Each structure stands twice: as structure tokens, then as C-alpha cells.
Amino acid sequence: MKITIAKTAGFCMGVRRAVDMVLDASNLATEPIFTYGPLIHNPQVLEMLENKNIFRIETIPEKGKGIVLIRAHGVPPEDETALKKAGFTVMNATCPRVVRVQVIINRYAKKSHATIIIGDKKHPEVVGLLGYARGNGYTITSMEQLEALPAFDNAVVVAQTTQNTVFYEQIKEWCIKNAPHYKIFDTICGSTEKRQSEVRSLAQNSDAVIVVGGKQSGNTRRLAQVARETGSLATHIEDASEIDYKMLASAKRIAITAGASTPNWIINDTCAKVAANVQKQRPIMGVVVRARDFLLKTNLLLAFGAGGLTYACAVIQGFSQIFVHSAIAMLYVLSMQILNNIITIKSDTYNHPERAAFYEKHKRFLQMLALGCGAVGLYLAYTTGFVAFCVLLIMSLLGLSYNLNPFPFFLGNTKIRKIKDVPGSKTILIALAWGIVTSLLPAIVNPCSLLPVMVTFVFVTGLVFARTAFFDVLAIQGDRITGKETLPILLGAQKSFRLIQYVLLFDIFILLPAYYTDLLGNNAFLLAFVPLFMLLLIRLHKKDSLLSGRQYEFLIESSFLLAGVVAAIM
Ligand code: SF4
Question: I need a surface site. Which of 41, 44, 132, 265 has the fewest CB within 10 A?
Fold first, then answer.
């Protein structure tokens, strides 16, 4: 059975922007935060917002206090004025594409043009648009209604951004023929069009289509309708609990798509549940996938990767006690990562629901395992030397204090109460910690020169920075909800992707001198395959490859382990 996930599934630009704005505001502001009407038509997102004390107001009170966010659909200008007059600080999250339509209507309404809006007059976006028509606006949803309108001396014609493109083409044809002086604007959002055409083509090539999203969401309902029109079996679900496995039993090819208001974590959860169901039907593949997921959930693959990188760094510098150093790095990474996962169960509920459930279920055992690994790692470091032991002890204490408030007096009343609250700190500190444990720690107990050590340190730090930042980009929605200040939240996904790629290119570049000089072992430049491989994976992801997040995770974590294998062959 084949599962295909639509490239266009999930938040559109306008919805993502509005959700990001309200979450960022709630993570920073001290005043109460409201949305004017439901932010989006998705019950899980609305529940999540209420859990973060972001409530909605449906009517404008005479007096109010706090921040009110205007949703992506926009509002009539008089509502914005009334909100300000009531005493609220208004944060306008109207989608820029809707703002464009508002501006068009406003410009022509000022010149006494009538406004004809193709759309449902009760839809919030249309209500907002009508507010700019200065009392001379008309809404229509059929050709008959258009024909019944009076003949205007001047009129502007626009469509609700999520309108059906085929219908709008008919409207335009009618206007060109019967009222050529009307000014017609293309205002349908490309995002809606792309989503619909993708689901149409997916449905034609699949036996069943699952459309994920709120039952009240118009664009999600329309996706299900488009899929059904192709004759494919189509089901509209709000979350994975509604999957009809009986319906899917005979399907060989399943397509999954989602409306513009469906968050990633619900899409990911649905994909994971459908995939798990497929695995049940293919026992051997199921065992392989379960083994992969176990290695990822427990962080064993990551720990082996740390061991592999340490081994590679030690080989190219000709160090001794290679296996001990690899074991120390493995144990340190395993210990810190398990503890970190236990602490971040809340955000994992959104980003990795299965991992969160696993950590919740085995919390006590995993805590003991993490502490045990940490202790054995320290003992091994002690056997290599007192200085190495002290360095690892400091690293472990720093790792443990990352989520605590170690300097309550120093940090005072600021929003930064823990090291983790420092924006972008997680990505940088994890990279530095790996760099120290995999390349500096072995250098302490081995005779070496400064330059090769620094090169390997920068190389590993760069690799781990790229890996951590990439996973942070994938987890950006859940992290925003839980108020994490990761690098992608600070820079945005696009800039983070660019930075990750530059870092990986630099990592490739930094190994080149090894080929021409005897700075590192002769074959050290072969390790450049690791950043190159990661770069390819990230480019693939940017091009909307069909690999799942889990497959990316597995491949990237495996590349560290492969560094060790390459070093062993060298
Ligand atoms: S569907 Fe298009 S116009 Fe509407 S909010 Fe999304 S990006 Fe903006």
C-alpha cells in the first residue's frame, strides 16, 4: 500500500502568519490576549489557544483591556476602530492577500464605484470586505444573482479569496460581454487553487483520499468535495480518531491532504496512524519500521551517531583510546537527550505525539537510564584523566541546568529565567556540547596540536548545529505553541534553512585543506560526505519530497553513524 501526503497540506501563508502572531504575542505579552472571532476553523487549534489563555470575543464591549488579534479573514474598518475605542491594543493579522482586496474596494468605493463581491455574504472575509464598500457593496453566489443586479455606471468586481476559480471565470466572461466597463480583479488566492488542483490529481491516482481539517472549515470541505467529484473514495476527518480503517481496507493507494487551517501535528498524527495500520498488514516491513522508530524514540541512533562522530574525529587525528572516547560521547548524548525529551513532553505532544506518549509511559525507567548513562560516562571519563572527568562533569551540570533557573537573582524580572529562555540557545548549546564531547574531550588526554583539534571541533559543531536547527524547523509549530525560543522561531523557517545550508557548505569547505596538507589524516576529506549528504536531504525536503519527517530523522541521525563507519574503513 502506498501513502502520499499532499505537498500543499496544512496551514496556508495567511493562517500560519495569524497563528504565529498570536502565539508570539502570548509568549511575550503580560496583558490578556483575545482573538476577535475564532482565529481559524479548527477545534484542536482553538482548544490549544484556550489552554494558552487566548480566548475569543465575539462582540466588541464598550470597555476592554489587553490585546485583540484580528484574524486572517479581516474585519470591516469600523470594527477595528471600535476595538481601539474600547481600549484594546489591536494586532491586525489580516492576510496580506485579503488586505489587497480591501485596498482595491476602498480605492474604488472612494470614487463612487459599486462593489460586486463573488462570495458568501455571511463569510467573515466577505463581511470584512463589504465594510470597505461604503454602503455600495453587493454579494453574489450565482449567475442568476449577478444578472439580477442593477446595471451600474461604474463597478469593481472581486472574488472572496477562497472562491471557486471555474465559477469566477464564468463571472468574468459575463462581465466582459455585458458590462465591459466594470473593473475586474483576480483576487482568488493561489494557495486555494493549488490545493484544489493537487487534491484533484491525487484523487485521480489514488483509491482513497483522507482530507484532514475542521468540519466547519469551508476550504477543507471543498477539498473533500473536489476529491469526491473525481469518483475516488473521500473521507473528511477532524483528527486521527475518526479514521475509517474499514473504508481503507481495500485501498492500495491512499492520499492524505489537509485544509488551510489544519496544523502540522494533526496531519503528522494522521499519517503516522494510517502508516501504522499499513504496517499491521505487512508484518516484515512492520518489524523494520518499529525497530527504526524504537531507535529514534529512545535516542539510541543519535547516541550511536555521537559515538561514530567521536570515532571519526579521533581516527583522523590519530588518537588512542578511541573506543573509550566514543563510549563517553554516546553515554553523555544519550543521557542528556533522554532527560531533555522527558522535560519537553509538552511540546512533543504537538511535534511527536508518539514519542511524548512513550516518554510519559516509561518516564521513571528512562529517568533511571539517563542518570545511569550519565554516571557510567563520568566514570569512563575519570579513567582517562581527572581533567576529562571535570570537563564532562561541568558539561553534564550545564546540560541539567538548561531547563532550570540557576540564577534567579541575576535574571530578576525579565522573561529570561532559564538558559533555555535565551532565544536560539538550544540549537547553539547542543552543537557546542557535542563539539566539546566528541572532539575536545579526547584531545585533552591525547598529545595533539591546536589547529587539527579546532578544525574537528568546528566540523562537528557545524554538523550538529545543522541537524538540530533542521529538526527545530520541522517542529516549529509545536515549539511556538509551547513558547520555545528556538532558532527557527527567531529567524523564521526560510532564513534558518539558508543558514543551515551555509553551515553545511562551510563544513565541506573546512575539510578540503586536509586533502592538500597533513593537518589531519590523509583521508579526512572523505568525511565531507556527511555534510554533503545532509545538504542533499535538506534540499530534498525544501523541494517537498515525499519522505516523511520520521524518514528524514532516521537518515540524518544515521549519517553521523556512517561517519564512524567511513573512518573505520579509512
Ligand atoms: S487562503 Fe490565501 S488569502 Fe486566505 S488566508 Fe490563506 S493565504 Fe490568505
Answer: 44
Residue 31 burial (10 A CB sphere; 0-12, 13-18, 19+): exposed
Considering 50, 62, 80, 125, which one is annotated as catalytic? 125
Is the beta carbon of 505 within 6 A of some atom in ligand 1? Answer: no
- Which of 17, 187, 191, 196, when mutated, tests ligand 1's pocket best, judged by the most ligand atoms within 8 Å of its CB? 191
Site of grid cell 518489524? 287
What secondary structure letter does DSSP report for 413? T
392 & 509 share domain: yes
Residue 206 φ then ψ, to 5°: -130, 160
* Cβ 161 under 6 angstroms from ligand 1: yes
Domain that holds residue 24: 13-94
Whether residue 48 sits in one domain with residue 21: yes
Domain presence at residue 548 = yes
pTM of the predicted structure, to 2 decimals? 0.70
Residue from 454, 455, 402 nearest 428 by CA: 402
> What are the backbone dihedrals phi and psi of residue 159, each rounded to the nearest 5 degrees, phi first?
-120, 150
Count how many domains the chain has. 4
Please report the pLDDT score of residue 144 as a whole number: 95
370 and 461 belong to one structural domain: yes
- 198 flagged as catalytic: no
Query: Is residue 35 one of the residues assigned to a domain?
Result: yes
Classify residue 6: in a domain, yes or no. no
**97 Cα nearest atom in ligand 1:** 3
